[in-house]
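Risk register update: the risk that structure generation would not scale has been downgraded. Supporting records follow, first protein first.
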Amino acid sequence: MLDAIGKELKVTRLKKDLSIEKVAKDFNLNKETLRRYEKNSSGLSVERLEELLAYYRVDRFIFFQNVCEYMHDLKE
């Protein structure tokens, strides 16, 4: 599931036409940290996830629905 969350974060950022540099700067993060969130190689807290979803203006329900769909597609 964690891989799916990272993948969906990246997809969401790209759909919003935001560069990794812009998001990292707005969150005062190193862009490598954001990349690790998107690749799920670094721990992403629930609080940070909530902040990113608010920044992207994405409803949590829709975000996790997309995550679940991605996970379902992997099982097939």
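Supporting record for the second protein:
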Amino acid sequence: MAEKILNSYETIFIIDASLDEESVTALKDKFISLIEKNGELESVDEWGKRKLAYEINDKTEGVYYLVNFKAVSEFPKELERQYKITDGILRTIVIRKDA
């Protein structure tokens, strides 16, 4: 059986700052555990509440998280799909880092 090759990725997601603290933590935990189940979590960097560069859905602030992880090449598509169908997520990006 061939060994699965893990690539390094970085994702940033912005959670709606108008949500209560409990909801923000629940959303963060949801995505962190999804990444842990499907890859190797390297680091989670909470940037906290910041003003958005421009309004998104009439919102001016968001809670930013930067996550570094390793996963198989199919996982980022699933992660992006989960981001899109989750209420409370304002913006996301997943980037493959060069080795």
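Strands lie at 7-16, 39-56, 59-71, 89-96. On this basis the risk owner (M.S.) recommends closing the item.
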